[in-house]
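S.,

Sequence below, as promised.
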Amino acid sequence: MAESSVSVHVSVERPAATASGYTMLVVAFVLAALLAVELISLVNAQGVITMPVWTVVAPLLVLPLAFALVSGGFYMIQPNQAAAITLFGSYRGTDRAHGLRWAWPWLGKARISVRANNVVSEKLKVNDLRGNPIEIAANVVWRVADTAQALYDVDDYKAFVLVQIEAAVRSIGSRYPYDDFEHAEVTLRGNHEEIARELQAELNDRLRLAGITVDECGLTHLAYAPEIAGAMLRRQQAEAVIAARRKLVEGAVGMVELALAQLSERDVLTLDDERRAAMVSNLMVVLCGERDTQPIVNAGTLYQ
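The prediction came back faster than expected:
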């Protein structure tokens, strides 16, 4: 028997039908004034009522109810804050206008902040693309873009953000190598901007379900794990020495080629293969040696 899957309803934010609280505050003052006038008139009448009773009782019943109805609908929204309006559990829209606001008292008002939030993830231990354990952490600036999704499509959107940040950082950390001295690959240490852009794109894709958008992110901590830090440091030093030696040899070979070519072009001297080999050997020693060379004066010939 095939199992039936139920898709999650995706909420979409829409404007709520609310009113300015300042206008309704004037209405409340007017109702209070009318009620005060009715009470004063009733006291001044001293029990003598010439009008029908219902014309006296009706305002005393309607005005307090109307005043209570108006005064019970006020709520406040701070700047960069919103209020999701619900009617008996049904989403009716979001009010993003800050200041004193008013809605019917039986409508629910769930306030939610749409300000930017800054989160620094914990240091996570991840294996990079080459299998080396590394420690990595990131800083993420996020905010609520769709209040309906944040409130009603996930159980706790703040906890959801933290979990997805950890998952995205682990994914990015395992997708690239820590370092590459030959600069042939995109690395975590050498391509900060590219890694940050990819991390932001992955976080936006993961957090779209909760109506969250990521404005900025980047790595704040990146290092080899303590158990291999010493070995990897020696490896980095060795690779750096090898890379430097390679550059040195490439430059020395070019200088030797240039020297031999200019000697031949200017007819300074004619060298056979053995003398050419000896000159190349001497030049390579001089150019590639780490210590200063000591010249030896040959008073004879190469063959004596």
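The first strand starts at residue 19 and ends at 20.

Coffee later?
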